[in-house]
Write a structure and sequence with these properties.
By secondary structure, the chain is of the alpha/beta class. It has six helices and five strands; from the N terminus they run H-E-H-H-E-E-E-E-H-H-H. A hairpin with a 2-residue loop joins strand 4 and strand 5. Helix 2 runs antiparallel to helix 3.
Length: 165
């Protein structure tokens, strides 16, 4: 272990930033046909998907909801990035990411979210992962591809894995 990172698993902040984002996505981590009653329901669905992936315990889901109640995780371009509080980091067994698409949109305090990228990272890894996701959102064409994706393969291509069609 060096600088809070496990060299074998790549977990920790530095490992999460060096690994391609696609490596943080499990086989069932991308669902693009979701609906939600409100932003808290969308956050809950992200948390449930992270729990189902085995990356976090239910305590992390609760910390995700706690964060959303404290401050919105909407970052613009129709995208929210729900993640837990610092207190929830102990509930993370490995860094992971889920991508949930909401084609009908979810009201997020007056903004419409079509994609939620749920993140679980140990220590301060959230900041680094959000920074990498921001690179996609800063390119209007890529942001549109993320919002309008209908196939998980499209998400994997955007996040650096697979081949573009």
């Amino acid at each position: 272990m060096q600088n809070g990172q496990d060299a074998e698993t790549g977990d920790g902040m530095a490992g999460a930033t060096r690994r391609p984002l696609t490596e943080l996505l499990g086989d069932s981590a991308i669902r693009l046909d979701c609906t939600a009653l409100d932003r808290f329901d969308a956050v809950r669905q992200c948390g449930e998907a992270l729990v189902a992936s085995g990356a976090v315990t239910r305590a992390y889901l609760e910390s995700m909801l706690e964060r959303e109640h404290a401050v919105s995780t909407y970052i613009g371009e129709g995208v929210a990035i729900p993640h837990g509080t610092l207190g929830g980091k102990d509930a993370v067994s490995r860094s992971a990411m889920v991508v949930l698409g909401f084609p009908e949109g979810v009201d997020w305090n007056g903004d419409t979210v079509r994609v939620c990228v749920g993140i679980a990272a140990s220590a301060g890894g959230h900041v680094a992962l959000v920074a990498r996701l921001a690179e996609i959102l800063l390119e209007p064409a890529l942001a549109e591809r993320l919002r309008s994706a209908t196939d998980p393969a499209e998400i994997r291509v955007l996040f650096g894995g697979g081949e573009s069609a």
